[in-house]
Write a structure and sequence with these properties.
Blueprint (H helix, E strand, L loop, with lengths): L18 E7 L8 E2 L9 E2 L13 E5 L3 E8 L13 E7 L1 H11 L3 E5 L1 E3 L2 H12 L8 E3 L6 E7 L4 E7 L12 H8 L2 E6 L4 H13 L4 E5 L6 H6 L3 E4 L3 H6 L4 H11 L5 E5 L5 E7 L11 H9 L11 E2 L4 E8 L2 E12 L10
Parallel strand pairs: 1-19, 4-7, 4-12, 5-10, 8-9, 12-13, 13-14, 14-15
Antiparallel strand pairs: 1-16, 1-17, 2-3, 5-6, 10-11, 15-16, 16-19, 18-19
């Protein structure tokens, strides 16, 4: 996510012509991994080298955002008010979007660093130990002597396959003065990409602005509307969204049209992805090639045509791409404006804890 300090344009703002591809996946699983319970270290998982591209020499990733301890209680069915029920299983493990993302990066062989805040309590020490065991650089974590670390109670409903999160934020909250200029510069030294989940908005913006100054791309994980998120999105080169975010943010009638709207509103982003759980994900990518001469195509119809090519009998990831570009037209101040995109498709799943 590379950055511009210009104001966020609305759907009818002027923007350069651009070509993009939209990707949609037939499978939600990209990587398969096997836990090695005998070794609680950064190499917790054994992955086939054939499934991964070669790692770059410089592979430092900086994450800024939420970390927590998650208490996951699985239940047969979600309780009714005033019910007393028993859990079918209980897990305690690290959580938080930034914590999960940096853990995943470490397990994939990258060198992640994280900026966040915990307290010097049992939960904070647990967070710190788990991140360090996975190979995440915690040198830039702020540890408060008093207060409490963030934690979340999660009720996992085995019947509906849903989860309900009850989050307790950390205290005292993270403020800009928690991160000195020298620490910020050290954290960004050698970094190839910055990840932000939209939490810690004031600190995240300072990190993003400095990254922008250093021409470091930024990836924003847009789970839901948050205070300060729009300012981060203006600086982004890459955006990954939850299933509901694109339509909530753009008020577009469908996910495909919402993704198009996001690329039009945010001219700096190179691609936007929306994750769809077991249905994989959709990606709209902006291309640098010159827009070809093409006819207008309905983006929803184009996605549906890709959807029909899915084969639900396969269990490996598959990418479906549109063969041609599609032209997006919108109305601006009485004139028709055009942008060119094309559709593709693939799937990804990543979670903290065991991968199976």
């Amino acid at each position: 996510m590379l950055f511009s300090h210009s104001t966020l344009p609305n759907a009818t703002s002027p923007h350069p012509l651009a070509c993009s591809r939209l990707r949609f996946s037939a499978s939600s699983r990209l990587l398969s991994a096997t836990a090695t319970s005998s070794n609680v270290s950064a190499a917790r998982f054994k992955m086939s080298s054939d499934s991964l591209p070669p790692l770059p020499e410089s592979r430092i990733v900086l994450g800024c955002g939420g970390i927590s301890v998650d208490f996951l209680a699985a239940v047969a069915a979600y309780p009714k008010p005033d019910d007393k029920i028993r859990s079918t299983s209980l897990k305690v493990q690290g959580g938080g979007n930034a914590g999960n993302a940096m853990t995943c990066a470490a397990r994939l062989g990258l060198n992640p660093r994280i900026i966040s805040k915990i307290a010097d309590d049992s939960q904070g020490r647990s967070i710190l130990e788990e991140l360090e065991a996975d190979g995440v650089n915690t040198s830039f974590l702020v540890v408060s002597k008093d207060g409490n670390s963030p934690f979340t109670y999660i009720i996992v409903d085995s019947q509906t396959k849903t989860r309900t999160c009850i989050h307790t934020p950390g205290y005292p909250p993270t403020v800009v003065h928690d991160l000195s200029q020298s620490s910020l510069l050290s954290a960004l030294d050698g970094v190839r990409i910055v990840y932000s989940d939209g939490r810690l908005p004031e600190v995240a913006l300072v990190v993003a602005q400095e990254a922008c100054h250093k021409n470091i791309p930024i990836l924003v994980d847009a789970e839901r509307k948050r205070e300060g998120l729009d300012d981060l999105l203006k600086l982004a080169s890459y955006v990954v969204c939850s299933a509901n975010f694109p339509q909530q943010w753009t008020e577009a009638p469908s996910i495909p049209s919402a993704l198009v709207s996001m690329l039009l509103r945010l001219p700096n982003i190179k691609f936007v992805i929306v994750t769809l759980g077991e249905d994989g994900c959709i990606m709209l990518e902006r291309s640098t090639i010159e827009a070809p001469t093409t006819e207008e195509t309905d983006v929803n119809s184009l996605l549906e045509s890709l959807n029909q090519r899915k084969d639900d009998t396969i269990s490996i990831p598959k990418c479906f791409s549109s063969v041609s570009y599609f032209l997006v037209s919108f109305f601006q101040y009485g004139n028709n404006q055009n942008s060119c995109f094309s559709l593709e498709s693939f799937g990804i799943e990543s979670k903290r804890g065991s991968l199976d």
